[in-house]
Structure formats: C-alpha cells, structure tokens
Amino acid sequence: MALRMLSRLPRPDHDEPDDGGCRVRDQESTLCAPGTYIQGIFYFLKSSAMIEVVASMSRGPVFLAGELLECLITFTNPMSHLSTSASSEMLAWASAQIHCQFHASESRVALPAQGNKDVQAESDTVLIPSRGERGQCMLDTPPKILFCDLRLDPGESKTYSYSEVVPTDGPPSFRGQAVKYVYKLTIGCQRVNSPIKLLRVPFRVLVLQAGMPEPPSPQDEEVAPSNPFLDDEETGRRDTRPLEKALDMLMVTTSRRCPHLFNITNMRGKVAKFCIFKTVYRLGEDIIGTFNFSEGDIPCLQYTVSLQSEEDVQPQYQRRPNQSASVTSHGRHLESCLHTASSHFSLPIPLNVTPGFSTDIVSLRWRLHFEFVTAREPMEPPTVLQNQSEVTVWTGAGLVDVDTFSWDLPIKVLPTNPTLVSYVSQFSGTNSINI
After folding, report:
1. pLDDT at 407
2. How do residues 29-50 score in pLDDT, each as one tens digit?
3. Could you tell me the CA-to-CA distances from 176 to 49, 205, 218, 353, 426 in Å, in that order?
4. How far apart are the first and last CA of the chain?
5. Residue 337's closest CA among 301, 304, 313?
6. Model pTM?
7. C-alpha distances in Å from residue 91, one per residue of 52, 88, 141
8. How far is 187 from 198, CA to CA, in rounded Å?
9. Cα 8–Cα 10–Cα 12 angle in degrees, nearest 5
C-alpha cells in the first residue's frame, strides 16, 4: 500500500480542537483511511495489486527452423494470503506467438517505401506483437490463446504450456552491419478495461537447409550406420523425424575429409604449398591448415590467417552502386616463418556466429583470408662451423625489402546441434513482467 497526496484543501472557517481528530507529524510514514481529512490534506490509498508473469524455455534459447519450441508460462498473484489487503486478481485473456523482427541500416540498404500504417496499430488495445520495436515484423505465427478470464487468489499460481513449430520459411537469427533478423516469443496479457501488456522472450534460430547437400539415395540409407541398442520400432520412429535426419546429414557432411592442396605463388615465384583437410565446417569446429615452405623459391617472413564473414547486400537493395561487402573478422593467427620448413594454424569457429545464408536482401558468406610477407632477395640461413670454439650470435637483417600479397579461400560454415549452442547463447530463455 502506498500513501499519496492528491491536493491541499483550505482550512475550514470553524476552529478545530487542538487535541481532537488526527494529527500528522510525518507525512511519509503515516497511513490514513481513504477520504480522511487531516490538517487540510486529503489522502487516498493506491492499490499495489499486480500479477507476475514468467516465461521459460526449458530446453534452451536456440532452435532449428522446423523444430518444436516449447515454453512454460506461469501467472502468479504474489500477495500473501495472510495480508489484510490481499485480494483476488483477474486477467481477461493471454495469448502467445512467435515473430521475426527485421531492421535494416539506412546507410547501406535501400528498402522500397512502405504503405500507410494501420490506424489500429497505434492503439494499445490491439494485439501487435512488434509494437514499440524498431524495424518491421516480417514473419509471425498465428496467436494461440492461453486462457480467458483467469482468477488468481492471493499466493496462487497457474502454469500454461505453449508449443509452436519454428517457421522454416524465415531467415536465421542475424545481427549484421546492414540488416538484423531477431526472433522473439511474445506473450500478450490484458486486464479488463486496461492496455495490453507484452512480455517478450528473445531466442535464436538456426537454418539447417542452407548449404546442405541433397538427401541420400535409398541405396545410401540401406548402408547407413545403425544403433544396435535400439529395437526396430525405436529405430523406425527415429528415422521418421526430419530434423534428426538433417542433423545426421550435417554430421556426415562436415566429417568428410579430403585434403585440398594449393600452391601459393606471387609474381616472383612459388612461396609455399598449402594443405587444408576440408572446406565445409559446422559451428564450434576448428579449422586446421598446414604450410610447406621447403618447396618454395621465395622466402616467406610472415603469414596471417583470418576467419572472416562477408555480408553483401543484394544489388537491387544497395544504397550505392557497386557497394562493397561488410567484412567482419572472427579470429586471427599470425606466424613468423623465416627459415621454417613447415608450419600450421588452428582457428576455432565461434558458436555465437551465424552460418552462411542468403535472402532476397542480404547474403552471408565465409572465407579464410591469408596475408603473406615475402622477401625480394634470397636470404641465406646462418651457418655454424664445426669445431667452432667461440660463441656466435646471429642477428636478423635490419632492413629487408619485402612484398605483401593476400589470398581468399571460400569455405562453408553450417549450423550445429542447437543444444550445444544454447550453452554460450547471450539469451537466457527466461523473462518476466509484472502487470
């Protein structure tokens, strides 16, 4: 209960008794009944009634497109039944739905002009899941009613289960320099004759179809590995799940190893031979490559390898003609390799990045960016004479004429199991609001 002053009224003409009525010494700490006149001040009591709403995704905040999202939504009257002011609380209705919010950078993306907004969207009594957010709602599921006319006694809680298939026709979650795709589960609640309150729970969506190969032929399925600890009924039920099949295909695709060899050359000659074991990876994997400098004609002083993503706006939506792609680095390895016969690098793919994808507005590609620093003149290695009695200290040249050049190797980055990604997600999968 809170005490609040409405107005200060003039003192009556007749004299009040000095010791009669109610005398106030501390306005902040004194409670009076509604409508009580105290020394010319009128007070009223403001009810602190509220309902706490908590939404929780038990399996985690990361899902594959086409996967079933499940969320438990709990409504609680937090007032204790022992309180003298406790009373039952009412909610007229509550619903839940999934929506994807799209936002584009005005400096990089030129979107077509939008039509007139619906007048009802400005009203706080109409359920608009994206109200108050930047950008536009590009995808949403039909709202599902959780209940109508819910009554909660003091200390009472009621939990409702919401489930919905994550749409497969939408983009993955992505926060780039040109565009952003953000998925949220929105719970709308309303008291009688009150505005609608919205509780949003952000989550991440991975799209598995992008970059995946064609499904295996029936002959390949017959020789596919099977689990001997599952009976035929369980095996058949598992094989009928498209997402489980897709995850199996993902593991097979990213597990195939076939060495790829490249000769690194510049205008002066051969620098090294590079070997990488595969060019298709999933989130969380390590990219490993090796260099062989013993076969090179040009001495290499240093090389750098960076894992980069390229965000490219489609030509029809570019703000400027021939607009360059936005390049973001996600890891870097630097190595000094003068007089080195061989070297290798290892770059991990973070779990929180977005795999490659393409939409009508933007595309995201992945690559390894190499930079080499080579000497223009041959550099002889130091020689140590046999039976040399004195200690010899070899120091590098103080000034070397060098050339630098770069090379990009495209690779594919695919999703991984969403449960694994949930451990490092920035979202908690739980959110709450008081209404």
Report:
1. 96
2. 334 444 433 343 333 333 456 8
3. 42, 15, 40, 10, 16
4. 16
5. 301
6. 0.77
7. 11, 10, 23
8. 6
9. 135
Residue partners of 154: CB distance under 8 A and separation at least 6 = 77, 79, 80, 81, 83, 86, 87, 88
Name which of 84, 56, 82, 83 is nearest 70 in CA terms. Answer: 56
Both tokens assigned to 336: 């000094």
Cβ atoms within 10 A of the Cβ of 83, count?
Answer: 11
- Other C-beta atoms within 10 Å of 356: how many? 20
Question: Who contacts 150 (Cβ-Cβ below 8 Å, separation ≥6)?
Answer: 75, 90, 91, 94, 158
- Reported as a single tens digit per residue, the pLDDT across 205-241 is 999 865 454 444 444 444 445 555 555 555 444 444 6
Which of the four pLDDT bands, split at 50, 70 and 90, describes residue 314? very high
What residues does 336 pair with on adjacent strands? 302
User: How confident is residue 69, by pLDDT bands cut at 50, 70 and 90?
Assistant: very high
Cα distance between residue 181 and residue 109, in whole Å:
14
- pLDDT tens for 401-435 read 899 999 999 999 999 999 999 998 888 989 999 98
Q: Amino acid identity of 418?
A: P
- How big is the chain by its Cα radius of gyration, in Å? 33
